[in-house]
Amino acid sequence: MTSYIEPLAQESTPSIIADKLRMAIGHGELRPGMQLGEADLARKLGVSRGPLREGMQRLTQEGLLVSIRNRGLFVIDMTPDDVRDMYLAREAIERSAALQIIARGDYEAAGQELAAIADRMLGADGDPAAIGELDIAFHELLVRLAGSPRLSRMHQTSIIETRMCIHALEETYLATDARAVEHFRLAEAIRTGDAERTVDLLNAHMDDAIQRLVNR
Q1: What average pLDDT score do residues 102-131 get?
Q2: Which distant-in-sequence residues (6+ apart) come within 8 Å of 200 by Cβ?
Q3: Do the beta carbons of residue 91 and residue 186 sit within 8 Å?
Q4: What is the DSSP letter of 71?
Q5: Would you say the C-alpha torsion 80, 82, 86, 89 has a positive or negative sign?
Q6: 3-state secondary structure of 123
Q7: 115-142 burial by CB neighbour count: b if 16+ within 10 A, else e?
Q8: Would you call 51 exposed, middle or buried from its count of C-beta atoms within 10 A (0-12, 13-18, 19+)?
Q9: Which of these ranges, 2-6, 16-20, 120-124, 173-177, has the smallest mean pLDDT?
Q10: Which whole-number Å values give the CA distances from 205 to 36, 114, 178, 184, 198, in the listed order?
Q11: In the chain, fewer beta carbons within 10 Å around the N or the C end?
């Protein structure tokens, strides 16, 4: 597995450190509920404790880390309520992004780009890790195509939390192309500029993920 907790190749800043820690959390190197040891992380990243603390503080503000009095700093553990709340936020952000794409009028090209990712999902030969990464890539692209830096920034934290959860869904899909089909339908709705169908499909997609995660 790729390690994200390794010495930085350039002069460190809190922003770079925060990015490294986000990736480590999202890819399971720093697991839900894990306590973070400041000295150990500073050594592994090759940084001093000052910028490390600043980087960790950013993730605490984003809700990816939690400070427990007299115990220390921990990676959040996604409870069922956290899962529901995270998907509520994602749904609001992605719905706004999709409607902005359609309102702007360049929805056909956007739908084609999104469909290309769904096509790659079909070509992943049922590899759960690859399909999971493409799933994330689809939704990141959807928000990016809206052209709103603020929506993209808001989306970033929910996507990291999604990465923490998404592999729990892998065994719940009996057909290896199930996620690809869902994403193809959503891409097609956007490509045709059908705002109502886009919203309905996006809501159903999020609701399905919540049910699979909460009831697994």
Answers
A1: 91
A2: none
A3: no
A4: T
A5: positive
A6: coil
A7: bebbebbbebeeebeebbbbbbebbebb
A8: buried
A9: 173-177
A10: 34, 15, 11, 12, 10
A11: N
Joined together, the tokens standing for residue 80 give 């069922």
Nearest to 87 by CA among 204, 174, 215, 216: 204
Q: What is the number of H-type helices and E-type strands within the chain?
A: 9, 3
Burial 85-104 (b: 16+ CB within 10 A, else e): ebbeebbebbbbbbbbbbee
CA separation (Å) from 213 to 27, 28, 79, 81?
A: 17, 17, 10, 11
Which tokens is 58 given?
Answer: 């950013």
- Give me the sign of the Cα torsion angle 35, 39, 44, 50: positive
The confidence band for 125, taking pLDDT boundaries of 50, 70 and 90, is confident
Coil vs helix vs strand at 11: coil
Evaluate whether 58 touches 188 at the Cβ level (below 8 Å): no
* Residue 73, beta-bridge partner list: 36, 67
